Amino acid sequence: MGGLRSAQEGSLKILGQEMCGASKKQLMKIRRNIGYIFQAHNLLTFLTAKQNVRMALELHEEYLNQDMDAIATEILTAVGLGDRTDYYAENLSGGQKQRVAIARALVSNPKIVLADEPTAALDKKSGRDVVEMMQKLAKERGCTILLVTHDNRILDVADRIVYMEDGRLAEDPNPANP
Q1: Rounded average pLDDT over 95-122
Q2: Which domains are seen in the chain, by residue range?
Q3: pTM of the model
């Protein structure tokens, strides 16, 4: 879905663009409208939190003439890391790393954020905080989040839940749920 791998068969449209058979240039254009939050956050350890977030801005021409450090600092403050902007990833807790990953995903105002198990390495409270923060920031920025999770404790935050089993849509395992 995120255009990081090419679709092999079938049809998949993201933001009106057919992904199956899309050229590298078309995929790159789509990816610029998508924020990614990986399960393992994928921060570059030799960069500070601010530099990790700024790097996402550098991929977009419209930000090159703006104060990218200020923009990165602003979103890091929004995720509660205003006092950690100059910390290297290795000096951050798991929850703080995930907050940097959220900031990086949202900083360029993507239309969609794809989040792969964003609470996987977090305790219950940190996981809840992260998901609620993602929801708040996405609503403020007019962004859709597609979140994949096995963590049933955070399902109530979702506007819509789709169940999958073995790569296919499945029935709700608890049909009595509203």
Answers
A1: 90
A2: 32-170 (3.40.50.300)
A3: 0.86
